[in-house]
Amino acid sequence: MNISAGQPRLTIIYNNNPELEFDRNKKLPDHQELYLDKMDEKMIKGITIGDRKIDNPDKNQRAQFVAANLTHALRNNNEPMMASLCSYLAMRLPDLQQVTINEKNGGMEIDFNFDKPYTTEILVAPPTKAKQLPQQPSELDDAEKRIISQN
User: Fold this and answer.
1) 74-112 pLDDT tens trace
2) What confidence category does residue 117 fall into, taking pLDDT thresholds of 50, 70 and 90?
3) Coil, helix or strand for 27?
4) Phi, psi of 102 (to 5 degrees)
5) Pairs from 40-48 (Cβ < 8 Å, separation ≥ 24)
6) For 40-84, what is the HEC assignment?
7) Residue 48 forms beta bridges with which residues?
């Protein structure tokens, strides 16, 4: 089930670093689509989030579960699992644009952003005060006069 509606890209940001990007414009191979379907079948039978067992979880609960597992995959640099879990989130939540995962103090915070795509911030320094060019040759300082006279 490829979805062309929604946002074209999903970005996964882990501890303030963009780690993964999924391009929804590229067709997912059939075997990967089947894998995502099997993930849904298993999760519908029940998942555990924290200490809570959830029977027949809804789409949002499954997405939270997948994102929590994605955190473990990122932490352990398990690239095949990262790709599968990122694909799941991108394909099952077509309007999802960013998942931000931050780990701190032994816990994790997961935020789903449906409102704006990820963009890199470009810091721009305020303009510096440029030296005013002299209006008259008499305003040149001694160093500038030596440079001019050498040429």
Assistant:
1) 999 999 999 999 999 999 999 999 999 998 888 889 999
2) confident
3) coil
4) -125, 130
5) 40/92
6) HHHHHCCEEECCEEECCCCHHHHHHHHHHHHHHHHHCCCHHHHHH
7) 53
